[in-house]
Amino acid sequence: MQRRITIVLLLIWAVALALPMLAYRIASAVELPPAGSPFYIQTSSSTRTLSIGDWYTNPAGGNGYHYFTLHVPCNWNPNIPVHIDLFHPDLNSTAGGGVTDEFGGTINASYTTTFEVYAVGTPLNPPTQPAPGAAGSLIQQTYNPNTIGPQWTRLYTIAAPVTCGAYILRTQTGGNADNSWRVRFGTDDDNNPATPPPANYDNPDGIEGTGDELLIGLASTSYQHDSTTVQCLTLYQYITPGQASVTFNNFDMDGQTRIRYYAPSAAYDPNALTGGIVGTLSANAVWNNGTAMVRGGDTITNPEPGWWRIVTCINRNNQFIQEGQASLLSFIELPPEPDMTIAKNDGVSVTAPGQTLTYQIQFSNQSNLTRVPPNARPGAAFNVVITDAIPAQTSFVGCSMNGLNGSCSESGGVVTFTLTDPVIAGASGTVLVTVQVNAGAAGSITNTATLNYRDQLGNQYPPVSASDTNTIPPQPLLQLSKSDGSTVTAPGQTLTYTLAFTNTGVGEARNVTLADTLPAGVSYQSCSLGSLAGSCSESGGLVTFTLTNPVAPGASGSVSITVLVTASGPATLTNTAVLNYTDSAGQSLPPVSASDSTVVPAQPLMALSKSDGSTVTAPGQTLTYTLAFTNTGVGEARNVTLADTLPAGVSYQSCSLGSLAGSCSESGGLVTFTLTNPVAPGASGSVSITVLVTASGPATLTNTAVLNYTDSAGQSLPPVSASDSTVIPDNAAVRLTKSAAIVVDGNNDGLAGSGDVIEYTLILTNTGPAVARQLVVSDTPDANTTLVTGSVTATPPAVVTQGNSAGDTAVQVTLSSLGVNASLTITFRVQVNTPLPNNVTEIVNQATVSGDNTLTTSSDDPTTTTPDDPTRLRTPPPDSPPTAIELTEFRLLPVTGGWEIRWTTGVEVNTSIFMIYRSTGGRDKASLLAVIPARGSASNGASYSVIDRHVLAGVAYSYWLVEIETNGAQHEYGPLQSHGTISQQHQYFIPLIGR
User: Fold this and answer.
1) This protein's superkingdom (predicted)?
2) Under a CB-based contact definition with an 8 Å cutoff, are residues 890 and 973 in contact?
């Protein structure tokens, strides 16, 4: 008898996450039944009896049609047309190609066959819908008998642009016959269905598992074969996960041969001889375990999900139906199967409250490895959805598709990832979920992700899951406090910051460090760990403590830092310390911090001076000490007091606040001033004390006052003090001598003539018995001389108050003190005036010295026996003959690396040459340095210069100028002396004019 078979093909589009190269066979064109199969499709007329085997078309059965689905994947190139070809579609008495029609009577015009194609989206409800001519019909083709024969003919072309999806093919047979035929679905390279189809007819890229394969499925049909032996047909039907049971149905097998059902993981025998589950053979014109109208079937409980293999073995010329589960699609060839795996990892094994965990959820379609032909085909995974339930003790932070197409979102603690694209065989990808561990979390955290997916037919595959577990060790919880024990401070004060910590948690705190960044306005002094083990150090204002030992639960400790306040105020010193630590697993926990603020008010800065207006005094005199103060700071000085301890040798008379408000008093030699009002910034004031001198000399009265004050916050600031010393000296005796030397003698006559230069030397000696104080040496040169300004020297150094400044005409030198038997030497020069009056016979000069404890004393000429007499130098007699030259300048100038000897003449009478001599050891050791021809005349002089660079630093040189006249007469001038330093200049202006 003849039976039917149900076959379905669904085509689902592919997704390319990663495109591996698969080394699988390239499928042939989609052909049903497959080329080489002994089975063919057989569609019976509605007039054929149920015993023939076609329940779907019989009015007493399904009373409908045969339906097939033709699927174009959405990855199909829409520019490539898809053709539907039929083999032997008409009722034809000529057999061939493995198909044979059967007739119940004589062929006539009613023996037609009809094939109709419906568009994508047309509802399918076999065996009656869609009805002939229903909405969505693309073509309805009727074939008259004996018109086609055993050859391929084109039914319909889905023209470009091709719409992807499932097309429906319906067929029916007229008259009283069984139409045997085949269908082919794919591309064509020559538009001729009679020629073999091109390579990759149904699979454009030629690669299995990419989701672009064409498929044909059967919704309602019957099968038969003409082979002389028993043949076995394997149908594939998908069992979705979670079903309690399934029922497989077959019809009109006449109890012939055998059926076995093979679970997806069971060993498969294509001949149904071994393994699997033995099925029940249906009898003539009935369903297995049922009736002609009611299905019974073979029920399998708790079936394994996946593709089951239903193997039906039957004898020839027996039309039958192998339905499997009713209303589900079956396949003659195993459709592509995806095989998804999932892995999950956050990269750590332990965590802690407050930390973030980023889970990497990795998935892969391993069907290129696990679905190995010929018993399997790799396939793309569609409708991939990953769900991740956020674990307890954590909070959702974010999710990421990590570059994949799709979306992720969180709702009610569940993160859902929806992939837009299929995952093709061999492809993989990663998505991310980030959570934060909640405060107080303990124990462990386990996160599980589940991946759901379907194959390209829409079959739901068993979900796959992966988990990751993190341990939370017992958690420490450190608290930190910080204080320097003060709210205000002042510059110069020290602050000691104490950093105290306590572990209030339940686990050990390990790897404890404290970092304290010192604020601006302080200077680091030291750090201390106290009784703790570890280390502390400072670098660049950062103080770091590292503890050696863990801090047990409940334990406490403290460390300290000492600083010096350098800020001047107003300022606030805010110091913050940060404590870092880990749990026992080394997980870093949130740092804790503590701060301390100390105010530095605007700071006053008091300056104090003290003076009685005198440096010396005497018994019986009164002294008034004035204590003057000024606030040079920026803040008020408050609580100002001054304390003055009077020295021995004075008797307190009175004290005065002047214009200030406050009080003053004396007790036991201590005078105290207390000011009522603050001293504002920039303000000044003074108080005074009057005493009577009671001590006799020699003595020194030293009086010191101390001023104490605070800032506006009451912080005591460093006291300031000032002292004044007044001497009650003993009398000292001094002796002053004065000698003269002509250092420039124009005519070498030894007399102080016009233009000659005289150098005076004064020696002041203290003959005791006391130190001579505040000495003043005064000297007014002779009226016939002019002071050479700048020539005054004092050894040891003293203060030249007159004589070295332009316009000075007298000499005055002061010395604060001169010890017993000590001496002060003063030198200066004068130049004899030109002309010198004829009535002047000598140059006379005398100096005086006075001091605080000395009598005024006149100088003594040590070359005479007359005490305290002036120093005298004779002048030339009148009408002396003129010299050969008039020398107006003769000086020694420093130049780079030596000395320049420069001279100028006013006139030159019979002068032939000039000669320069140099010596370092006296005149008798002088050597000739240069010979210079004379260039002047009796009416005009000339200027000359010789530079001596052959000198040594630190060596004193003497230079002489010798004029040689035409008659051989010589005139010598000098010496000029360098005194050992090239930076010194010697200059003499020597007008030599006959008188």
Assistant:
1) Bacteria
2) yes
CATH number of the domain at 340-472, please? 2.60.40.740
User: What confidence tier does 881 reach under pLDDT thresholds 50, 70, 90?
Assistant: very low
Query: Nearest to residue 881, comparing CAs of 951, 803, 810, 969?
Result: 969
Name the phi and psi angles at 368, rounded to 5. Answer: -70, -20
**184-207: string of b/e by CB count within 10 Å (b at 16+)?**
bbbbbeeeebeeebeebbbbbbeb
Strands lying side by side in the sheet with 799-802: 799-802, 811-818, 772-779, 847-851, 854-858
Q: Angle at CA 747, nearest 5°, toward 745 and 748? A: 60
> Which residues lie below 8 Å from residue 349, measured CB to CB, with a gap of 6+?
470, 471
Would you place residue 111 in the very low, low, confident or very high pLDDT band (cuts 50, 70, 90)? very high
Task: Please check whether residue 655 is in contact with residue 664, taking contact to mean a CB–CB distance below 8 angstroms.
Answer: yes
Residue 35 in this model has a pLDDT that exceeds 90 = no
Rounded CA-CA distance 660/680 in Å is 13
Residue listed under structure tokens 């390579």: 199
DSSP state of 369: H
List Cβ neighbours of 387 (8 Å cut-off, separation of 6 or more): 414, 415, 416, 417, 449, 450, 452
Q: Side chain identity at 991, as an amino acid letter?
A: P
**Does the 478-600 domain belong in CATH 2.60.40.740?**
yes
Q: Given this chain, do its domains 340-472 and 606-728 carry the same CATH topology?
A: yes
Could you tell me how many residues make up the chain? 995
CB 496 within 8 A of CB 522: no
Q: Name the helix (H) or strand (E) containing 367.
A: helix 367-370
Q: Which CATH code, of 2.60.40.10, 3.90.226.10, 3.60.20.10, 2.40.50.100, is assigned to 885-988? A: 2.60.40.10
* DSSP calls for 380-429: -BEEEEEEEEPPTTEEEEEEE-TT-SEEEEEETTEEEEEESS-B-TT-EE
Beta bridge partners of 522: 565
Q: What angle do CA 920, 921, 925 make, to 5 degrees?
A: 100
The residues, any chain, with a CB within 8 Å of residue 327's CB and separated by 6 or more, are 126
Domain residue spans of the chain = 30-324, 340-472, 478-600, 606-728, 733-874, 885-988
Token pair for 448: 């599980």
Per-residue pLDDT tens digits for 141-193: 999 999 998 999 999 999 999 999 999 999 999 999 999 999 999 998 888 99
Secondary structure class of 250 (helix, strand, coil) = strand
Q: Say whether pLDDT at 745 is over 60.
A: yes
- Give the mean pLDDT of 719-748: 90
Residue 491: both structure tokens together: 């510059």
If you count DSSP H runs as helices and E runs as strands, how many of each does the chain have, helices first? 1, 66
From the number of C-beta atoms within 10 Å of its C-beta (0-12, 13-18, 19+), residue 995 rates as middle
Phi, psi (deg, nearest 5) at residue 255: 65, 15
The string of DSSP codes covering 56-104 is TTSTTTT-S-EEEEEEE-TTS-TTS-EEEEEES-S--S--BTTB--EES
Residue (of 83, 65, 88) closest to 6 by Cα position = 65
Task: Please name the helix (run of DSSP H) or strand (run of DSSP E) that holds residue 545, with its range, or none.
Answer: strand 542-547
Residues 199-220: tens digit of each pLDDT: 777 777 778 888 888 999 889 9
Residue type for 369, please? L
Q: Cα separation of 134 and 64, whole Å?
A: 14
Contacting residues for 875 by C-beta, under 8 A, at least 6 apart:
751, 752, 753, 832, 836, 840, 841, 842, 843
**Closest listed residue to residue 431, CA positions, set 382, 381, 363, 366:** 363
Class of domain 733-874: mainly beta
CATH topology of domain 606-728: Immunoglobulin-like (2.60.40)
User: What gap in Å lies between CA 622 and CA 694, rounded to an integer?
Assistant: 9
Tell which residue, 594, 562, 602, 596, has the closest CA to residue 578.
594
